Amino acid sequence: MSYTVGIVGVTGAVGGEVLKILEERNFPVKELRAFASARSEGMQVTFKGEKVTVHEATPEGFEGVDIVFFSAGGSTSKRLAPEEAKRGAVVVDKSSTWRMDPNVPLVIPEINPEDIATHQGIISSPNCSTIVMLMTIAPLHSVNPIKRIIVDTYQSASGAGGKGIVELMQQARDVLDGKQPTHDTFPHTLAFNALPHVENFGDDDYTTEELKMRDETRKILHQPNLPVSATCVRIPVPISHSEAVHIEFERPFSPDEARRVLAAAPGVIVQDDIRNKSYPLAMDAAGKDEIFVGRIRKDIALDNGLSIWSVGDNLRKGAATNAVQIAESLVTKGWL
Amino acid sequence: MSYTVGIVGVTGAVGGEVLKILEERNFPVKELRAFASARSEGMQVTFKGEKVTVHEATPEGFEGVDIVFFSAGGSTSKRLAPEEAKRGAVVVDKSSTWRMDPNVPLVIPEINPEDIATHQGIISSPNCSTIVMLMTIAPLHSVNPIKRIIVDTYQSASGAGGKGIVELMQQARDVLDGKQPTHDTFPHTLAFNALPHVENFGDDDYTTEELKMRDETRKILHQPNLPVSATCVRIPVPISHSEAVHIEFERPFSPDEARRVLAAAPGVIVQDDIRNKSYPLAMDAAGKDEIFVGRIRKDIALDNGLSIWSVGDNLRKGAATNAVQIAESLVTKGWL
Predict the structure, then answer these.
(1) Contact at 8 Å (CB) between A140 and A109?
(2) Assign residue B240 a region: left if phi > 0, alpha if psi is -120 to 50, beta otherwise?
(3) pLDDT tens by residue, A7-36
(4) pTM of structure
(5) Most B CBs within 10 Å: which of A150, A169, A296, as the mutation test of the B interface?
(6) CB–CB of A310/A317 below 8 Å?
(7) Is B7 in the same domain as B121?
């Protein structure tokens, strides 16, 4: 079996990664259709050595598509995803639009693949910062329930798309050259700075990014009241989110036991050899599909607590790889 | 009254700030003596428009000195500080050597000035990351006792001295120019990266920087068992440490009440107008003596919790300014 696959937002940072990853993982693609906004009409992308022309995403363009990856903005997903689902395609959506919809499963295939079965045409892939945290804490939760989470993030410029990387690098060059940097994508200069402001401000003076980490974690772990407090911070790194995670468990959890559990968890690499200065680093995780975890130690301010440093490529496992893995699950389970 | 003042480590990042700040704040200096390691012998620094020759720090060089600031390494403080104290000088030490000595007060003048009175010749100034956090939480603690603290830091390159800034900037230029960056001061490339490794690894797989935040907080607040869990992370910022602080209090603490308490706290500036994208930023805090605090909100994972973002210049209030303020307290209280 092979499938007609669409990518909406193929010219963006995450859409480009989806294209690459479908090829790398040899997803059974019969035909690839490339979509983007009207201003990219006629551009070309390359898939398995062949040129594919980009078309504006319209409901009609999706006739005959089996599966479609949405890596466009929320408004595009809101408008088009139900249209595609109506036409019989399964939508794997990377935007935040459908994530908290009770009729839409929110899936990390290593953690809650069974939720895929409940889909009604749309499946959501979580926020990048949620995925980087959950890949680390869900395997621990499955052997010793989590009671609360405090997390502070060190998020990369590419969380704001490819233009975020370009802006960071231009700002860095301006600062080094003694020029005044300008900003457009970010609310302030990001180069040589730390911005405690990712996305927009929402309820209770939390940012929407911080609230996503809380709400998506609750949905994926099926723990609707789990206390999760996040401070999301953008730092001058092009790719990969790093996170300092503090977790309270129901019972004591030794760092050694946590290392054993995580070493056996799919998609997770334990890198925790501090004597040799080996711990997860944003720069090393970039381009990788695994989530890297280290600095595992007892959290001395929480009961039965662990402190953990978790790092992953926000464009790959944090976005594109996870979406492609959802599609792979659909195929292998015969749900497509 | 005016005093003979010495600075040990005057050619370093913090020593240079002490020199500037003594002049800015018009500390009553009768004579300034500049000391550094043997390799700086004969260099000159400028104080109030006059050249002062740097000499190698030796016990004999301190005869007649009333007060001496140590901003050199720990081994220099260990060797020379008791010698100077014996000769009648009061030593204000910025190294970690004496901080946990029960006979040495550890002082932030806005918080525990009364501890200065117990000195026996040496007074310690806390670690920069401790000062940035305590300036924010001590005023809150004094109206509603703190029960536990979880903190994750975003620390600047200058925490490793002036050479840290130089290395960061060179690495950034190398990355932008497509060259392979090298590292010497930091354990890995810091530019465009995040290193969960500040100082050395110590007990229980915590770094010495993380343990300082715990132990110094306990000593300054006179709370010997306070649970404090820190993850200390170096990020590519030249000056200013930022910190995400999560605090549990004995009783409920509304964000509005916390803002009122902090607005009245000396040396603290509340910058918390998120609708106008106004919150503390490392880049803005650099060169300032105040600690900036914002993103004040209920911590949804702690009982009676607050989440706070605290930022300060690690070379100034985090080091030099605090040391000079200790000296000012000695003068105004007549303890010199």
Answers:
(1) no
(2) left
(3) 999 999 999 999 999 999 999 999 999 999
(4) 0.97
(5) A150
(6) no
(7) yes
Q: Hey, is the C-beta of B242 within 8 angstroms of any chain A C-beta?
A: yes
Longest Cα–Cα distance of chain A, Å, equals 59
Q: Which residue has the tokens 């003594």?
A: B22
Q: Is B119 a catalytic residue?
A: no
Domain count, chain A: 2
Name which of A240, A304, A207 is nearest B244 in CA terms.
Answer: A207
**CB of B7 within 8 A of CB of B55?**
no
Is the CB of A196 less than 8 angstroms away from the CB of B242? Answer: yes
Question: Do A35 and A9 touch, CB atoms closer than 8 A?
Answer: yes
Residues linked to residue A245 through DSSP beta bridges, in sequence order? A151, A308
- CATH code for position A149: 3.30.360.10
What is the nearest CA distance from A193 to chain B, expressed in angstroms? 5
To the nearest whole angstrom, how far is the Cα of A226 from the nearest Cα of chain B? 8
d(CA A224, CA A27): 34
CA distance B175 to B192: 8
In this structure, the answer to whether residues A138 and A119 fall within a common structural domain is: no
Whose structure tokens read 């503090």? A246
How far, in Å, are B183, B193, B260 from residue A191 at the CA level? 20, 12, 32
A178-224 pLDDT, tens digit per residue, is 999 999 999 999 999 999 999 999 999 999 999 999 999 999 999 99
Describe the strand order of the beta sheet including A228-231 as a list of residue ranges.
A228-231, A146-154, A241-249, A305-312, A291-298, A268-270
Query: pLDDT tens per residue, chain B (336 residues)?
Result: 899 999 999 999 999 999 999 999 999 999 999 999 999 999 999 999 999 999 999 988 888 999 999 998 889 999 999 999 999 999 999 999 999 999 999 999 999 999 999 999 999 999 999 999 999 999 999 999 999 999 999 999 999 999 999 999 999 999 999 999 999 999 999 999 999 999 999 999 999 999 999 999 999 999 999 999 999 999 999 999 999 999 999 999 999 999 999 999 999 999 999 999 999 999 999 999 999 999 999 999 999 999 999 999 999 999 999 999 999 999 998 888
B128 catalytic? Reply is yes
CA neighbor of B107 nearest in space, from B117, B75, B97: B117
Catalytic residue (one of A55, A119, A141, A241): A241
Return the H-helix or E-strand segment holding A140: helix A128-141
Task: Tell me how far apart the alpha carbons of residues A89 and A80 are, in angstroms, rounded to a whole number.
Answer: 11
The answer to whether the CB atoms of B281 and A195 lie below 8 A apart is yes
**Domain identity same for A114 and A150:** no
User: Do A139 and A119 share a structural domain?
Assistant: no
CA B156/CA B138 separation, integer angstroms: 23
Q: Do A147 and A293 fall within a single domain?
A: yes
Same-domain pairing of A156 and A255: yes
A304 pLDDT tier (thresholds 50, 70, 90): very high
Half-sphere CA count of B218, side-chain side, radius 13 A: 15
Given the residues A128, A141, A222, A246, the one annotated as active site: A128
B154–A contact, CB cutoff 8 A: yes
Q: Which of B55, B119, B128, B141 is catalytic?
A: B128
Nearest to B127 by CA among B241, B43, B224: B241
Provide the domain limits for residue B240: 130-314
Structure tokens at A195: 């911005």
For B109-240, strand residue ranges (E) read: 122-124, 146-154, 228-231
Place of tokens 């045409």: A121
